[in-house]
């Protein structure tokens, strides 16, 4: 019964947090400007080769390859920007409710605190990755037109697995931590979320030779060097603790 209310909660998040759809539109707009500049503007790809060679099929293929590599970089930037959006969304989603006191209204409705927190996690960990993939597909169509399918089949062949690993090993614990900070921080969840790990690292370096911070903090912020099961397990356990504490803390709000 509670899951029937989830779509309404998700629509509410999209309407209240406009950067979830504004930022992708800006990124797509930038891609359109780049494409227009390549077509009718001053931006060009110049190999500095003799003019007669520019008509060679191999050179044309090389030009396409350069465009594909440039598009790979653009798609990587789309992923990074949207992950930043996800982090800032997670840091503000519950804090804003307490600031404007709308939490009192939402808690008066027959919606559980667990479902409310789950809706925030769905937006950050499921909706935003879908938006990333959709934006990358749209940008590929902008640059390659009907040939975008060939590019996307090659690009998604490797990038989707990387995206999944980043979500499970890195973004899951980071987003869970940010949602927890959004609920418990009294003034600035951003400072609370990032100063606390810094303090943890300093204390851990002084007393435990960095073992704890290496597992819970550094590997999450700077990329997991090895996607092993133990690192995933610690991240999932940490995420579960953060989510449970967030729900409990929210349930204590009057």
Characterization of this structure:
- It is built from nine helices and no strands.
- The chain has 254 residues and is an all-alpha fold.
- It has one domain.
Q: Name the average pLDDT.
A: 80
Which structural class should the secondary elements be placed in? mainly alpha
- Which regions are unreliable across 5 or more consecutive residues at pLDDT < 50? 52-56
**Total number of distinct structural domains:** 1
Share in β-strands: under 5%
Descriptive terms for the model:
single chain; 254 residues; mainly alpha; 9 helices
In a few lines, what is going on in this structure?
It contains nine helices and no strands. By secondary structure, it is mainly α. It has one domain.
Architecture blueprint of SSEs:
Layout: H1 6-16, H2 19-40, H3 57-99, H4 102-108, H5 113-144, H6 148-184, H7 189-207, H8 211-222, H9 229-251
Helix pairs in contact: 1-5, 2-3, 2-5, 3-5, 3-6, 5-6, 6-7, 6-9, 7-8
